[in-house]
Design goal:
Blueprint: E1 18-29, H1 32-38, H2 40-60, E2 64-69, E3 72-77, H3 80-98, E4 109-121, E5 124-126, H4 128-136, E6 144-148, H5 149-155, E7 164-169, E8 178-184, E9 215-218, E10 222-223, H6 228-246, E11 252-253, H7 256-259, H8 269-276, E12 280-289, E13 292-301, E14 304-314, H9 318-347, H10 355-366, H11 371-387, H12 392-407, H13 414-431, H14 436-448, H15 453-466, H16 471-483, H17 487-500, H18 507-520, H19 524-537, H20 542-554, H21 558-571, H22 577-583, H23 588-600
Parallel strand pairs: 4-6, 9-11, 9-12, 10-12
Antiparallel strand pairs: 1-3, 1-4, 2-3, 4-5, 6-8, 7-8, 12-13, 13-14
Helix pairs in contact: 1-2, 2-3, 6-9, 9-10, 10-11, 10-12, 11-12, 12-13, 12-14, 13-14, 14-15, 14-16, 15-16, 16-17, 16-18, 17-18, 18-19, 18-20, 19-20, 20-21, 20-23, 22-23
Length: 605
């Protein structure tokens, strides 16, 4: 078996400080000094055993112990729900274990929990959030749990326990007072009595949710050999897949912390759908033989498995393989989900369609690239916006439709259509300033219609920060880089976009954007190959036909260039090269060469 890549350890104290949000749990044993004074060896043995039990409980709940000091410890959790649930379970079991012990020998923990930003340097953590958690623990009742308002706000509707407000307290060296809440574990609970926390909304009917998007749960992958390396790889794979899928704004992905509890039990899809309130569940297993790896993945909905596949590779470069498989799974899962959601929307009665349903139907029509389908898609998107004025995707896709309407040569008033698209794009990002798709569409509008490449790049930076796996953000940023003359980076971005979404219904657009990037980089044969691939799926894409014509002329393939030019004129009989010159975001010599190549292929001036 190939060894894991070495970690370059920095000298102690020299590691870079990282900041992240976390829930901090601190715990210690009540009356530890007195217990040690009466029976030192017995107390030490029992305390070590209890601290070990608490450490294992923290690990099972997805937490990480950062420090142990005799009678207590400090740990970090990815969520406040995980921290409080873990504390409740442990205190319940601790009460049960010590119930028969005499009061003077009983070991009782006090636990404090706070949530906020922490600083991490190597294996040390710090920051105000850690200090607050440390101040809460001594104030808790013996056997009790004291939490801050920051934690209470996150758990009050998701953890089955009663919380009592104990008022504001001023904590040592903490500037502002902190509102505190107390809770106690019940004496009869078992671990199974603390269920997976419910979602913050109730599913009385799937149509009544305020967020219309489908919910996907990614269950822990199973390492069939259960070695440390296999488990490490499987857990890293889940993180990468969730990160990739979370960048897709038309999908809600349940956090890993909510699915960790399924790791210890056989796969039970009915339980997963019920407890996680998910529409889709992705699960899989990892098998290794020597350096050879096989990952088997299934995607299921309430009706059963809708897609399954397997991925083979080697362990030689574990991190690269994690990234490759995660991207592949994400790129395949997304179009499967969209097609199933569209089929579901098509089966619904018109009066029960949500803004999400109407937008899905509109996107299906837009991809047909027909004038009449665009008109109907515009009507559906306007209906979606009227149905839910806060639903940002309806506006962002209205803006995208407006740009494509102009690009296809169907606009009778470029200025009016440009203003309408700009207004819709602004409405979208006002409603959701962190939607990667909406930000990328707004950025593309800045460069494609307004030729403001600098402003466009700022929006693409925001889009890629919000959705690193958003194919349209990579694709549109690649287009703008090409317009600005940064052709090498344009190719990189366009290639990444195609890798992210090779099977989606919009794949022909991404292939066209890659073709154009290759054309601008002078790689005409590559431009022709991808232009042909795009044309095979979207034969009516006028922009792709123009780029394919220019690429063929540049490569000396005049016969095929003339044929494609006739296809373009059949699609848009009134199309002229002067129209291209007036609208294209290309500029200077690049624009002039492109226009000349269109003329050489027979497009009238």
């Amino acid at each position: 078996m190939s060894p894991l890549p070495a970690i370059n350890a920095a000298p102690f104290g020299k590691e870079k400080i990282q900041r992240r949000l976390a829930a901090i749990l601190t715990a210690d044993i009540v009356g530890y000094s007195a217990l040690m004074g009466s029976a030192e060896e017995d107390t030490h043995r029992r305390v070590c055993a209890e601290i070990s039990k608490l450490g294992r409980a923290i690990a099972r709940s997805g937490g990480q112990v950062f420090g142990v000091a005799g009678d207590g410890l400090i740990a970090e959790f990815p969520s406040a729900v995980d921290a409080v649930t873990c504390a409740l379970r442990f205190q319940t079991n601790a009460r049960r274990r010590t119930g028969a012990v005499s009061p003077e020998r009983r070991l009782l923990f006090r636990i404090g929990i706070h949530a906020g930003e922490i600083m991490v340097q190597g294996d040390q953590i710090g920051g105000t959030a850690v200090n607050i958690a440390a101040r809460l623990e001594p104030l808790a009742d013996p056997g009790g749990i004291l939490i801050s308002a920051a934690v209470y706000d996150q758990v009050r509707q998701r953890v089955p326990s009663a919380f009592a407000c104990v008022g504001e307290r001023r904590l040592k060296n903490i500037r502002a007072p902190v509102m505190l809440y107390a809770t106690h574990a019940k004496t009869v609970l078992t671990e199974s009595d603390v269920p997976t926390p419910p979602r913050s909304w109730d599913r009385v009917s799937g149509e009544e949710r305020r967020d219309y998007r489908p919910v996907l749960a990614v269950l822990p992958f199973r390492a069939l050999h259960r070695s440390e390396v296999d488990t490490y790889f499987a857990e890293g794979m889940i993180d990468d897949i969730i990160r990739a899928l979370s960048g897709l704004k038309d999908l809600l992905v349940i956090s890993r912390s909510s699915t960790t509890g399924f790791k210890l039990f056989p796969v039970d899809l009915h339980r997963a759908f019920r407890e996680l309130d998910a529409d889709y569940v992705l699960h899989g297993s990892l098998r290794r033989q020597g350096d050879a790896l096989r990952l088997t993945v299934e995607l299921a909905n309430h009706g059963g498995v809708i897609w399954a596949d397997r991925f083979d590779g080697t362990l030689g470069s574990i991190f690269e393989m994690q990234d490759a498989i995660a991207m592949r799974v994400a790129s395949i899962v997304a179009p499967h989900l969209r097609s199933h959601e569209l089929a579901r929307a098509d089966r619904k009665r018109p009066e029960s369609l949500t803004a999400y349903d109407l937008t899905l139907q509109a996107l299906s029509l837009i991809h047909k690239l027909e004038r009449t389908s665009f008109i109907e898609a515009r009507r559906l998107l306007e209906q979606a916006a009227a149905c839910d004025a806060a639903y940002a995707p309806a506006y962002s896709h209205l803006a995208s439709l407006g740009m494509q309407w102009i690009g296809q040569g169907w606009s009778n008033d470029d200025n009016a259509d440009c203003l309408a698209a700009s207004h819709a794009a602004r409405m979208a990002i006002e409603r959701d300033p962190n939607d990667a798709v909406g930000l990328s569409i707004y950025g593309h509008l800045q460069s494609y219609l307004l030729h403001d490449y600098y402003s466009a790049q700022e929006y693409f930076k925001r889009a890629l920060a919000a959705g690193p796996s958003c194919a349209s953000a990579w694709a549109y940023s690649g287009l703008t880089l090409g317009y600005a003359g940064e052709t090498a980076r344009a190719v990189e971005h366009a290639e990444h976009a195609v890798r992210l979404s090779p099977l989606g219904s919009d794949a022909f657009w991404l292939e066209h954007y890659l073709s154009q990037a290759y054309y601008l980089a002078g790689r005409h044969e590559d431009a022709i190959a991808w232009g042909r691939a795009s044309a095979a799926k979207g034969a009516s894409n006028a922009s792709n036909l123009r780029c394919l014509i220019a690429s063929l002329v540049a490569a000396g393939q005049r016969a095929e260039a003339d044929l494609v030019a006739r296809q373009l004129l059949k699609l848009i009989p009134e199309y002229r090269v002067r129209l291209f010159r007036s609208r294209t975001p290309l500029c200077g010599q690049v624009r002039d060469i492109f226009a000349t190549q269109l003329l050489e292929a027979g497009i009238p001036d």
